[in-house]
Design brief:
36% of the residues lie in helices and 17% in strands. The protein is of the alpha/beta class. Among the domains are: 1-173, 3-Layer(aba) Sandwich (Rossmann fold), CATH 3.40.50.12780; 410-511, GMP Synthetase, Chain A, domain 3 (2-Layer Sandwich), CATH 3.30.300; 534-606, Orthogonal Bundle (Non-ribosomal Peptide Synthetase Peptidyl Carrier Protein, Chain A); 634-853 and 878-914 and 975-985, NAD(P)-binding Rossmann-like Domain (Rossmann fold), CATH 3.40.50.720; 1035-1269, NAD(P)-binding Rossmann-like Domain (Rossmann fold, 3-Layer(aba) Sandwich), CATH 3.40.50. It is elongated. It comes from Penicillium canariense.
């Protein structure tokens, strides 16, 4: 039974799926993401344009684009318009492209402006990057749409080389791919949520997922055959299914033998294009134990012929794997030379009939007739069968085995090469009389070799000049206009005559001699004084090309010496690994001589112009100049982030930014606008922005489905003026935003200043421009990298380098650009814009979950030391590990304060830990290491882990391969003194770097696959041992509101010590997690919920969760409260209303949620935090005192009304206590007059908590109604 409706054409099937799953992600590339609904709209818009060019049934629409989302849209639009898409490869030589266009005669070609000049024919063009415009051509009356059941009309045409020299256009009707996809769905179905990466065989793969609601991820051309880039993309995109050629898979596995750890989501891998060896199958099964491996055999003229699961079809005693069972066995024939079917087990030529066949070779009726014969085995009128040219046999098991090629077509790295075509062109364009072309070697070393006999009557045809390495650069250049790059022989052998068979008289390919191997000779390579010399590049060339370095010359061309796309990717990888920075493949492909590659590598290293480098102080000074128009309105004042209605956050797709987003949602009620980077931002990019933020938060364990309710995505680009927004949109944004948290930056310690200035400096400038328009407060996230290494003593907050010291003391472009950005922020502050600068140090993982920054160098060093069993011994190596949750909470807490005059805050650890103690703690956790001097450690690491065979598959290996630090770097820590910052963020406790924190981290590293085993569960065991601990409150359940800090947090820990299970509620979920960690260390159960007590539903949900997960609630401790010093005459109405809402309404919501349950069980204890201000009114605290009088009155009434029911009611009346409440006031006059400290020792939250424990631990018949607890020297 069909899985899809095989009576409908491709555009109809896609449209049905779009209607069924409009909000599912349909298509994405590295720049954009479309839902099905959005993709459907894009396709319809482009289809409407195509109809104006007369596109209708069997019209061809040329597609000359890179592999991308636009490519898929163009093809779907051609189909919806009623036509067919024509595949035009960007890699076609100019002559071949002209031949194809001339032969196919497309109605219009879809391309980009940059590629349009390649189309020399007079043909209408649509450039997608020129909105609704054409380059040439004219429009026609729109044609009528196609019939959805017309499956015989053309769907697409792709060209393949032919033996006659004329390219063949293989014309496929809709019926073929529709039936093919249905058969493949029967082998492996797809569904929404599946993510399919389309790279090789792109045009066959790109439409199939869109018929089942899955996501198509377009792999860019430069990543398709680059193993490192491809694996990175598959990993980062969470790919569940893809297709590779066997050669590509072999290359990937040689680099990543444990690839399953990199690709945990990959469920299905299709193999196609070449024979799968049994050896490769074994390696694939071992490397991908949880991935289904499907060996598929197909042809352009027939689509899929056979398919099978490698685990089922592999014969361990055979050299090659069968291709599986025929998908249409009734129309799969193996015939002898007389056209009769052979017996099972015998080889013959494979013919395919049925409905999956191509219609024809375009404009080649004779060629079509020879390949597509009448099917005498099928009685259906007009039935045809295709002559594949492959030799095959059916095994007794029913499986199909391909044994060879009738026409000896060569499979080379996924390409099909017809030797006769190559031989014909060699004889036509070169002075060659006879020629035989074969493949030599295996895997990446497999190359085309041309055996030739010179033509003595060549006329004007040039002779073939073969150098001593067996290569012919001149022949390559002559053949390039006529043959695709993969069809040009890499090696040449001249013979007096070609060997022939004594029986047949034909050329005997088996008797051809092997091509010569390179032998050393003199070298023209010279050196200069640059640390990177041509000799370095030549060494790596020789390794990749399997030749002698001594034979290489600066003018040699990589492709002339046998290089190809995969070996170029290998070269890029080896260059990157050798030099410690990434060398992009496209840069190497621009000019492929040895001398050009030297210049490319040097340019990548240098990165910026000599002018910038030579006069960096002047550039820094110019860049730190702030435009005059960036100036806020005269009445601008600082805004607390707690009072903001709308906050703009940058960097939410990064590590710290993700936690800032989560914490902002937990600790404020503001709308959060997230600026998400797109190269050319448009409103339609919002879905893509959501997807990127979701992926980041999922990876860090922060995602929840309700998160986006208060998040708005703003597509933008920090390096563009106004973020790439229109002036109107920029002004509208400025009017909405009250606070900006600017955390985005390009962080790279290798890139030079010029490469980072666009985002880090230009982006900050645009942030300040935005803030100045509406007077928004800017919270700027900076780095300790704006200061040089400091030795033992840390830099105080006001420290700032002079501009002339920056080039010599800040040696990386990142620190230099952040220094300039700080200058801009400070200058804006001097002009009256409210600004704060938060300098962070080295940010480590989350202290509770361990969630880590995958790119952290220190983490990589620790993990690799554990894997190696040796730790580096570096004198004076101290490491900073400041948990990301501490940094995020500190920034947000500091952003709530408006009274502090301080501008720069330090969040780095003023006391970095000695790494020796870190390794000692790791030893306690079951990770013993021996110490080695740094140089010996590096040598051992490269030998055991950094080599090709050592540590592939480990993410941390790749980090160190891309740039091993120096001893000077490890010792050169920048320490930040935080003496001035600490009082302002005192309530945010810095986690201690100890074995408990390291256990959390290593457990997370193990879960990510970075470590081979989990840490010893010493702390977990300690907690378990405490579970049976008894206390006076053991077995009871308490609900505590306001539990994220101050008295509430102290009460939670105090009750836990007495054996009480607790449910904690507060607005700041991040802070609750820290409290939960402490509570659970006492061996009791603890749950947390984000709770705003002014919201009745949230208060009820907290109590319900406690009942459901912990048991009936015995105790309520209502600690949530606010306190503001205000003068009544100053009418601070917002703070008055907040006081009444939290202190009065919040108490009532807590009571209404708990009292009924307690009364039904005839037991319970209500405790509420009142105040000594509830007994006596204090000036400056009039409204606060009134709210506490309300608390007292409510509790007294409750106590009287419930006497005799088993309920106890206690009012706790603390005096002056050290809590965050003291820093909330904004009325400076009231604080100055009534809030100044007296100098007396005030209460700690634990003092208040102890009084509550006292009340709770009394016998049932004893009720402690009120406790007045005050500082001894401040009685009321």
């Amino acid at each position: 039974m069909p899985i899809i409706d095989t009576t409908k054409d491709l555009p109809t099937l896609f449209q049905q799926q779009a209607q069924a799953t409009p909000d599912a992600i349909a298509l994405e590339d590295d720049a954009i993401t479309y839902t099905y609904q959005q993709l459907d709209r894009e396709v319809e818009a482009l289809a409407s344009r195509l109809r104006l060019y007369g596109v209708s049934r069997d019209s061809l629409v040329g597609v000359l684009l890179p592999r991308s989302a636009n490519y898929v849209i163009a093809c779907l639009a051609a189909l919806r318009a009623g036509g067919a898409f024509l595949v035009l490869e960007l890699a076609y030589p100019a002559g071949l492209l002209a031949d194809v266009i001339s032969d196919a005669n497309p109605a219009v070609v879809i391309t980009h402006q940059s590629e349009a000049e390649k189309v020399k024919a007079h043909c209408p063009l649509i450039a997608l990057d020129l909105p609704a415009a054409t380059i040439n051509g004219h429009t026609k009356e729109p044609a009528s749409g196609p019939a959805e059941d017309d499956l015989d009309r053309l769907a697409f045409v792709s060209y393949s080389s032919g033996t006659t020299g004329k390219p063949k256009g293989i014309a496929n009707p809709h019926r073929a791919p529709v039936l093919s996809y249905d058969l493949r769905f029967g082998v492996q179905d797809l569904q929404p949520g599946d993510r399919v990466a389309c790279n090789v065989f792109f045009i066959w793969e790109m439409l199939r997922p869109l018929l089942r609601g899955a996501t198509v991820v377009a792999v860019p051309d430069d990543a398709s055959y680059d193993p490192a880039a491809l694996v990175d993309l598959l990993a980062s995109k969470g790919i569940t299914e893809t297709l590779m050629t066997p050669t590509l898979l072999a290359t990937v596995l040689s680099r990543y033998p444990q690839i399953a750890t990199r690709l945990p989501a990959l469920r299905t891998l299709w193999l196609n294009g070449e024979v799968v060896t049994t050896d490769l199958a074994r390696k694939a099964i071992k490397a991908l134990p949880h991935t289904r491996l499907l060996n598929c055999y197909s042809a352009c003229e027939t689509h899929e012929i056979a398919c099978g699961d490698i685990r089922d079809v592999m014969d361990p005693d055979s050299l090659y794997c069968p291709v599986g069972a025929p998908l249409d066995p009734a129309h799969t024939y193996i015939l002898d030379q007389s056209g009769q079917e052979v017996a099972a087990g015998l080889a013959g030529e494979l013919f395919i009939g049925g409905d999956l066949l191509a219609r024809e070779y375009l404009n080649l009726p004779d060629t079509t007739a020879k390949a597509f014969l009448p099917d005498k085995f099928d009685p259906t009128p007009g039935a045809r069968m295709y002559r594949t040219g492959d030799l095959a046999r059916k095994l007794p098991s029913g499986l199909l085995e391909i044994t060879g090629r009738v026409g000896a077509m060569i499979k080379l790295r996924g390409y099909s090469v017809v030797p006769a075509k190559v031989e014909r062109d060699i004889c036509q364009y070169l002075a060659v009389g006879q020629c035989a072309v074969i493949a030599h070697g295996e895997g990446l070393e497999r190359q085309l070799v041309a055996y030739m006999v010179a033509d003595q009557e060549a006329g004007e045809r040039p002779a073939v000049e073969i150098n001593e390495t067996g290569h012919s650069p001149a022949a390559r250049r002559i053949l390039e206009p006529h043959l695709a790059h993969y069809m040009i022989p890499a090696l040449w052998v001249e013979l007096n005559e070609l060997p022939t068979s004594e029986v047949s008289g034909k050329v005997d390919l088996k008797r051809l001699p092997p091509p010569r191997s390179a032998s050393p000779s003199g070298s023209d390579l010279t050196t200069d004084q640059d640390p990177i010399g041509i000799s370095d590049i030549a060494t790596i060339w020789a390794n990749v090309l399997k030749t002698s370095k001594a034979l290489l010359k600066p003018e040699d061309n990589f492709f002339d010496l046998g290089g190809h796309s995969l070996s170029l990717a290998d070269l890029a990888s080896k260059l990157s690994r050798h030099f410690g920075f990434r060398v992009p493949i496209p840069r190497l492909a621009n000019n492929t001589t040895l001398a050009a590659h030297l210049e490319t590598v040097r340019a990548v290293r240098d990165g910026h112009t000599a002018a910038v480098q030579a006069d960096l102080p002047a550039v820094l000074l110019a860049d730190s100049t702030l435009e005059d128009e960036i100036k806020p309105p005269s009445n601008t004042s600082i805004t607390s982030i707690a009072d903001a209605n709308t906050v703009l956050l940058t960097g939410a797709t990064g590590f710290l930014g993700a936690f800032l987003l989560s914490d902002l949602l937990d600790s404020t009620s503001a709308k959060i606008i997230c600026l998400v980077r797109f190269n050319d931002p448009e409103d339609d990019d919002q879905a893509g922005g959501v997807a990127r933020i979701r992926r980041n938060l999922l990876d860090l364990g922060l995602w929840r489905d309700t998160l986006m309710e208060r998040v708005e995505i703003l597509p933008g680009n920090l390096s563009r003026p106004r973020f790439g927004l229109s002036p109107e949109a920029f002004d509208e944004l400025a009017a909405r935003v009250q606070v900006i948290v600017h955390a985005a930056a390009t962080v790279n310690l290798v890139y030079p200043y010029a490469a980072l200035r666009g985002v880090n400096i230009g982006g900050t400038r645009e942030i300040l421009r935005l803030a100045s328009k509406g007077g928004a407060t800017v919270q700027y996230v900076s780095t300790n990298g704006v200061l040089p290494p400091s030795g033992e003593k840390g830099w105080p907050e006001p420290t700032m380098l002079d501009v002339n010291d920056v080039p010599t003391k800040l040696l990386d472009g990142y620190g230099q650009t952040k220094w300039v950005a700080e200058q801009l922020v400070l200058k804006a502050g001097q002009r009256g814009l409210p600004v704060k600068i938060h300098r962070c140090g080295t940010i480590s993982g989350h202290s509770i979950t361990g969630s880590a920054n995958a790119w952290d160098l220190l983490t990589a060093l620790l993990v690799e030391s554990i894997r190696l069993g040796y730790a580096p011994e570096v004198e004076g190596w101290r490491a900073e590990m400041t948990p990301v949750d501490f940094v995020s909470k500190s920034i947000i807490h500091l952003a709530t304060q408006t009274m502090a005059d301080q501008t720069i805050f330090h969040l780095g650890d003023p006391n970095p830990v000695n790494t020796r103690s870190v390794f000692e703690n790791l030893h306690e956790l079951g990770y013993p290491t021996q110490h080695l001097p740094w140089d010996e450690w590096v040598t051992l690491w490269y030998e055991k882990r950094g080599s090709t065979k050592g540590g592939d598959g480990a993410f941390t290996v790749d980090i160190l391969r891309s740039g091993m630090p120096t001893v000077e770097f490890l010792r050169g820590i920048v320490v930040l003194d935080n003496s001035l910052t600490r009082p302002f963020r005192a309530v945010v406790e810095r986690p201690k770097v100890d074995s408990l924190l390291l256990e959390t981290y290593t457990r997370h590293w193990f879960a990510r696959g970075w470590l081979p085993r989990a840490p010893s569960r010493q702390h977990a065991l300690n907690r378990t041992s405490q579970l049976n601990k008894k206390g006076p409150l053991s077995g009871q359940v308490a609900v505590i509101t306001g539990a994220s800090s101050g008295i509430g947090a102290a009460v939670a820990e105090a009750l836990a010590k007495q054996g009480c299970s607790v449910a904690l509620g507060a607005r700041r979920l991040d802070a609750l997690k820290s409290v939960q960690r402490k509570v659970e260390s006492h061996g009791v159960r603890c749950i947390i919920r984000s709770t705003d007590v002014t919201n009745k539903a949230q208060a009820e949900a907290l109590v319900q969760a406690a009942n459901d997960e912990l048991g009936p609630v015995d105790i309520l401790v209502a600690c949530a409260g606010v306190m503001y010093f205000t003068m009544m005459a100053n009418t601070q109405t917002d703070e008055w209303e907040r006081t009444v809402d939290v202190n009065c309404k919040g108490l009532l919501n807590a009571l209404s949620s708990t009292i009924p349950g307690m009364l039904s069980r005839s037991r319970g204890h209500i405790v509420a935090i009142s105040s000594d201000a509830g007994r006596k009114v204090f000036p400056g605290l009039g409204v606060y005192s009134a709210s506490k009088f309300f608390v007292e009155a409510t509790l007294q009434a409750l106590r009287l009304e419930t006497a005799g029911t088993g309920l106890r009611v206690t009012s706790i009346q603390p005096g002056n206590t050290s809590t965050p409440l003291l820093g909330m006031s904004t009325d400076a006059e009231a604080v100055k007059k009534y809030g100044e400290p007296s100098g007396a020792k005030i209460l700690e939250p634990s003092d208040v908590a102890n009084s509550i424990v006292h009340a709770l631990c009394q016998p049932d018949y004893v009720s402690v109604n009120e406790i007045l607890v005050e500082p001894r020297d401040e009685p009321i």
